[in-house]
């Protein structure tokens, strides 16, 4: 089956630092999504990317759809304590009405105030 | 907006018991799916549906059944629970490939 390699597995940073995480795939995707999960909650969509090379921002978050369509990265600038959580990438390569997603295993982010 | 609603939030089952995890969405999305989340494993797709009356298997379907009689509801059934099914279960509905998740059901099988 398809695999998404998400790295790093975990990060421990100081408040105010910038963060970068990425996902790589063994196959091409036509959609990349980034989610954040808080403890005890379901994942919440942060950014959606639909075109190779696309760069999209959501506040302090910026994500890019890699040119090869096999990778994506997420940057968080000037981290704050509420950024703590698990960040997941997800990719879709099916067409039509089949929105099946493949998820990375997540990056656990800890922010030290 | 309620979005995606899952019940129950917590459940403890004995091995061999059956139960149904409920999922309902009010966004009129055609596509719905069930995932399980285990430590270090991310989210793995169990079953999905592209519309009422249509379901298909995902990555880890064994031990689970689904049906989709309406657009709104997509229940997940465990016919004979096993300890390996201890997990957190998430239901999602999707628009344009963007999945919206419920708050999850934490299931423990003893």
Structure commentary:
The complex is a heterodimer of chains A (113) and B (110). Chain A is mostly beta strands and 113 residues long. The radius of gyration of chain A is 14 Å and the shape is globular. The termini of chain A are far apart. The model of chain B has no long low-confidence stretch (mean pLDDT 94). In chain B, a hairpin with a 2-residue loop joins strand 9 and strand 10. Chain B is built from no helices and 11 strands. In chain B, the strands form 2 sheets. In chain B, strands 2, 4, 5, 6, 9, 10 and 11 form a 7-stranded mixed beta sheet that branches. A 4-stranded antiparallel beta sheet of chain B has the order 1-3-8-7, with no helix packed on it. Chains A and B meet through strand 5, strand 9 and strand 10 of A and strand 4, strand 5, strand 9 and strand 10 of B.
**Share in β-strands of chain A:** over 45%
The amount of beta strand of chain B, in percent, is: over 45%
Helix and strand composition category of chain B: mainly beta
Number of strands of chain A: 11
Task: Indicate the overall shape of chain A.
Answer: globular
Radius of gyration of chain B from CA coordinates: 13 Å
Uncertain segments of chain A: none
Oligomerization state:
heterodimer
Helix content of chain B: under 10%
Topology pattern of chain A, helix = H, strand = E: EEEEEEEEEEE
Q: Assign a percent range to the helix content of chain A.
A: under 10%
Cα radius of gyration of chain A in angstroms: 14 Å
Largest protein interface, residues of each chain = A-B, 24 and 28 residues
Overall mean pLDDT score of chain A?
Answer: 93
Termini of chain B, distance in Å? 36 Å
The number of helical segments of chain B is 0
Our measurement of the CA-to-CA distance between the termini of chain A, rounded to an integer number of angstroms, reads 40 Å
Largest beta-sheet details of chain A: 6 strands, mixed
